[in-house]
Every structure is written in structure tokens, then in C-alpha cells.
What does this fold into?
Amino acid sequence: MKRVTVLGATGSIGCNTADVMLRHPDKFSAFALVGHRNVNKMVELASALQPEWVVMTDAAAAAQIRGKLPAGVKLEDSMEAAIALSSASEVDMVMAAMVGSAGLPATLAAVQAGKRVGLANKECLVTAGRLFMNAATESGAEVVPVDSEHAAVHQCMQGHDRGSVTRVILTASGGPFRDRDPATLHAVTPAEAVAHPNWDMGAKISIDSATMINKALELIEARWLFDLSPDKLSAIIHPQSIVHAMVEYRDGSVLAQLAMPDMRMPIAYALQAEPRLATGMDWLDLAQTGSLSFQTVDHIRFPAMRLVQDVLGGEDSLSIAFNAANEVANAAFREQRIGFMQIVATVEQVLAKVENVPVGTLDEVWLHDGHARKLAHEVIAT
Ligand SMILES: NC(=O)c1ccc[n+]([C@@H]2O[C@H](COP(=O)([O-])OP(=O)(O)OC[C@H]3O[C@@H](n4cnc5c(N)ncnc54)[C@H](OP(=O)(O)O)[C@@H]3O)[C@@H](O)[C@H]2O)c1
It folds into this structure.
């Protein structure tokens, strides 16, 4: 029986993780469930999974949930508790599914403690990829990707020589605005941007998919996860979201991983790769799908994919700024303080103002992150 701490339990990935765990009660039990503000969802999850601990990192939400949890479930109310319950000796595995760089401290603590970590929270690799992967090497922690594209790459690399890889190709659906007239994109509303055609996800990542910043973040994530130089990383539009990624080898062979777009597949793979776990998702029926199509990413429609080339070619401070500015701009768009086109424009303006330097410590990461957030707020205010 593996004891699991789920960070971001109340979110989309967290709830899908609960779904997979509940299908395999003989294999997984919840040690700790960590949420932020969603009290109702946490009460529901705690009664289904009966964890030893519940943490609401928002103290007001913790006060609200008190008395509503099943008997015997212990409650904590801080990020410090989330960090402790991610690295505790009782934990076998941590599902890292908080959103944004807020997820970094607890996920890094799990890595430093040598846990198996299912990594959905790509922002922590984008922000501190070098530190994160060095910590995993030192502690022996196994970091298994939960992003469907990276889970696909992981599967396509199993049993193959890493040195023979010539290219990793991540697929992108192109989001809700793949075919929309670019001249009308300035008028997009948050509700339109959140409505992803293929995936049901949290609000922040859905908007990141609409701008394609999500794919840009994923390229940076792949760089660290698979130790790849930027020239080996690429993305291609694939509207059906059936092929999740491809790995090309020196001899011209290309391996692809296919599955229905359902996050329970990569979540199950991260929980236990072999033997495979049943997930309850629909079977892929390619005759029903009919055709799989691919097209080049248009950098005019999706300027984030142009910007990321400089970020990949630059030093750590650029990816920290790219992520931090996007978190600020994404939230501002959701709150209708800026328009859709201003999200990437804000990121671009922040990138033009920050240093391009290597970053060696977590303190430095937070300094660069804070500086980029401040610049993003300034850009938005002007
Ligand atoms: N959804 C997907 O299909 C998908 C696919 C690939 C990768 N990912 C990645 O997985 C991560 C989670 O995505 P999601 O779609 O599941 O997001 P989501 O539905 O918005 O859930 C986010 C989770 O993080 C918690 N949270 C929010 N702000 C927090 C803070 N300041 N401190 C601590 N916890 C906080 C939320 O708690 P409350 O709700 O309780 O406030 C919730 O549990 C993201 O990094 C995303 O890029 C998601």
C-alpha cells in the first residue's frame, strides 16, 4: 500500500488523482490532502479518501472546514504543514498538483526527501528546474511527469538509449482560438478562453493553453525533465489531442504515444507505471476518430512560442521571469483587468527588462520571481 500526499487535491488534477486512487484502494491510501480555499471539495474528498491529514493553506478556509471533516482526520492550516507532510517519513509518493510557483516549496521538499513525485505542477520546474533536478539526483527521488505530453515522452523513451534521441516533439491542440481570426483575439473573454475544446482543466492552465504559453512552459519543463538541449525540443499543432508527444531517434524512427485526452492516464502512470492501472477512461477508437492531423505552430497567432525560443536559449532568470510575468498577467486577464492579447505582451515587456543570468539558489529564484512580478504589475498598470 502506497501512502500518498496530494498537493492541490481540490483542483482538476487533484480530483482526477482521487478518482484513480479510489479505483485502487488496495494499492493507494491518502496520507495528506492539501487544498487552498475550496472547503466544499475538500470535505467531499476527505470523506471519500479518509486521509490522516487535511491541510488548507489558506487559514480562513482552514477555520471554515474545522468540524466538517470525518472523525479522526487531523487538520493543519499552513504551507509549512504542506511542506512537512510532503516530506514526512510515512509518505511514499507525492502528487504535485498545486497551480503556479506556489507549489515549488512543498514539491521541492518532497524531492529533497527522496520521494516518488508525480509532477503536474510544471511551473515549479520552469521556475527552478536546475535546482529541482539537482535535488532529485542528490536524494534519488524519482520525478515522474503528469503532464500528458511529458508522460508520453517518458513512455516513448523507456528502454531506449537517451543519447540516440534527436528530437522531442510535443503536440498542442492549439486551444480554443486555433482557427479564430487573429484580428478578433483582442475581444476574447475569460469564459471563451477557459473553454478548451479537448481538455477539462483548471482556469489558469486553460488560459495558458489559449495563449499557448502552456506549450512554451512545457518546452522548458521538457528541457529539465529529460535533460535535453533546446535544439532538440519542438512543438506541433495536433487538434485532436490523441498523439500526446513523439520522440525521434537518430535512425529516423519516431515513437509516439496515443491515448484519449483524459488526465487519468498520465496520473495513473505516475502513480504506478508497471503493471499498468485501470483508469476507467474511454478506449481509443481510431476508426471512430477518423483522421489525425498536424500543422506548424504559427508564431504570429501564438507569439508566446516565439518568445520561448529566447527563453530556452537564455539563462535561468529568463524562465523565472517568463513564468512569473505570465502568472500575474493570466490572473489580471481572469479578473478582466487586461485583454487577452495583453497577456503575452506583458510577458514580452517584462522579459525585455530583466537580467539574463544563471540562478543558483532558491533565495535567488524568489528574488528574480518577485522582481518579475513587480515589473508585470507595473506594465499592467500603465
Ligand atoms: N488540469 C490539467 O488537466 C493539467 C494538465 C497538465 C498539467 N497541469 C498542471 O497541474 C497543476 C494544477 O492544475 P489544475 O488544472 O489542477 O489547477 P486547478 O484546478 O486550478 O487547481 C489548483 C490547485 O492548487 C491549489 N492552489 C491554488 N492556489 C494555491 C496557493 N496559492 N497555494 C496553495 N495551493 C493553491 C487549489 O486549491 P483550492 O482550489 O482549494 O483553492 C487547487 O487545489 C498546474 O501546474 C497545471 O499546469 C494540469
